[in-house]
Structures are given as C-alpha cells and as structure tokens.
Write a structure and sequence with these properties.
It contains 11 helices and 14 strands. By secondary structure, it is α/β, with parallel strands linked by helices.
C-alpha cells in the first residue's frame, strides 16, 4: 500500500539539544495513525517538519509523495490541520468562518459553495451556520474546525489532540467522522493522550525524549517482549471494594506493580505466583471477586516502555 506519510531518520536539533532523534516510520494511505508521547517528547516538532514549517537537521520525509524540504510550499495544499486550541474566529458565525477559510484556500465561488455544502451536511452544521462560533459548544467548535481543515479537500489531515476538552459523546461522534473520512480514502495523523483513542488508530507510534521507542498496531505492541517478560504474569482482579483490595495486593511480596482500572486491578506478579496463590493470599480481604489472566493494555505498554527507556 502506498505510504501517504514517510519519515526516514528524521532528526531535529536546536543547538546541542536533539528534540527529534532519528525517527523512521510510514503511514499508509487511508489509515489513522496515532502519535503518542508526553509533553515535550517531540510530537509537535515532528508535525512541524512534516508540514514544511520547520527544516529537519538531517533525515528525510515525504507527504503524499512530496519532499518535505524541497517541496514544502506545495505540501501545504495537500494537508489539512486541526489545532488543539480553537482557531475559529469567535465573532464570526460558523458560515462566515467557512467562507473565510474557503477564500484563504483560494477556492472559486462555485467550488466554495459546493465544498461548504458538502461539509455542512457531513458535519451536521446546518442548524448552527448563523451562530457565532464563540457561542458553540466545544464539540460543535471541533466539527467546525474540522470542516474548515477539509475545505480544500486535502488527502492528508493532521489532528492535534482533536478531542481535548470535549465531552465523551462529542468525542465519539468526532471519531465516527474520522472513520467515515478514512474509509473514503483520507489519511489522518492524530496526536492524543487518550488511550481509548489510541486503540482506535490503525497504528500507533510512541515517542519519548525525541526517540520513537515503539510503532505498530495495538495488537503488535501488546506482544512486545519487553512488555511481556517471561518472569512475570499479568492478572486482572475484579473488585467492588477497590481500595481495600488495592492495599492488600500491594502488600504482597511477589507483586511488582498494581494499577486501578475502574472496578478492576491490573496486577503484575512474579511468574511463580499463580492465580490460585494470589486468591489464597487475598482470602479474608473483603472486596475482590474474581482473578483472571489478561493481556497488557496500551497504557501498560507505554508505561513499561517509558520506564525501560529511563533506565
């Protein structure tokens, strides 16, 4: 499959500080790629290099077959960008914002009308066209921002934490839109801090201190040897009284890690500790109901990789 986005050894240095260090990966056309990492890890700098806004120190990259250095000006017509913060003009109505961005993309009158109509219908913005964007809810502001990013019909769209600060229903609705657009052939490059959103991506990359320390499907990442050490076993403990169970688990000498997930504890124990032994040692402690083996979550994967990289 053709790569919509490709990086090969991409590196960016500011003085003696390397903020993106020899990053290599490819994003297939029509997929949703998620780039995760803590603040200051190099996500934004990577995006800026891909968009032609920052020159790399070394390495190469391409967007829709265009070189990010030699053809940076042309690249900007092949990408859409939706920022984390609200970039709409709050004193303009939704329709006026669409008109402004359509003219900024130099669309002719007929094309402006057709693209606006298509996107208004797709995003469900019809009832809000005459509402000032500053009065829209967070979810509708994000829909409007996405519509503006898509007005020139770019094949590749960068989404910088697209659902930050909006409610769960609006998040779900936005992701449904991303899926529909990806099915139609658009490629999405998403940064997010939400693990459930990372699960929805076709592939995920995890960048830490400028280095890409993992990249692949969520299934492949869960199977990494460094996450599934042969000397440990991972269990989920179903618990109604979560905190007493958590305290009891952490007191056991063979427990290496324990984390709360809703009404469950995810526990990493030494491989010599069976589920039966864990159940026996917890007998008498109120609050737990069942114990089962589980695969690591993506959060488990990224926490483990971060700790490994810090050693």
């Amino acid at each position: 499959m053709k790569a919509a986005i490709a990086l090969d050894g991409l590196t960016k240095q500011y003085g003696q500080r390397t903020v993106v260090d020899d990053v290599t990966f490819a994003v297939p056309s029509g997929s949703i790629f998620g780039l995760l990492g803590p603040n200051g890890s190099g996500k934004s700098t990577t995006i800026k290099m891909l968009c032609g806004l920052v020159l790399p120190t070394s390495g190469s990259g391409s967007i829709d077959g265009l070189d990010i250095v030699a053809q940076s000006a042309a690249i900007r017509w092949h990408i859409g960008y939706m920022a984390q913060s609200n970039t709409m003009y709050e004193d303009l109505t939704a329709d006026e914002n669409l008109e402004f961005y359509a003219r900024a993309y130099r669309l002719g009158p007929a094309e402006r009308r057709d693209r606006k109509e298509t996107l208004v219908n797709l995003m469900g913005l019809g009832p809000f066209l005459d509402v000032r964007s500053g009065l829209l809810s967070g979810g509708w502001q994000r829909r409007l921002a996405l519509a503006c990013a898509l007005l020139h019909d770019p094949p590749i769209v960068f989404l910088d934490e697209p659902t930050a600060g909006i409610d769960p229903v609006a998040r779900r609705d936005l992701w449904d839109l991303f899926f529909r657009l990806a099915e139609a052939g658009k490629t999405f490059f998403v940064t997010t801090h939400y693990m459930d959103e990372a699960e929805r991506c076709s592939e995920v990359g995890y960048i830490y201190n400028g280095k890409l320390i993992a990249c692949g499907t969520s299934v492949a990442l869960r199977r990494l040897a460094s996450v599934n050490r042969p000397d440990t076993t991972r269990y989920a403990i179903d618990a109604e009284e979560i905190m007493p169970t958590f305290a009891a688990v952490r007191a056991l000498p063979y427990v290496r890690d324990a984390t709360i997930f809703g009404h469950e504890l995810h526990v990493v124990v030494e491989s010599t500790a069976s589920a039966e032994r864990l159940a026996s040692d917890l007998r008498g402690h109120a609050g737990w109901q069942a114990i089962r083996c589980v695969d690591p979550s993506l959060e488990d994967v990224f926490v483990t990789l971060t700790r490994e990289s810090e050693k």
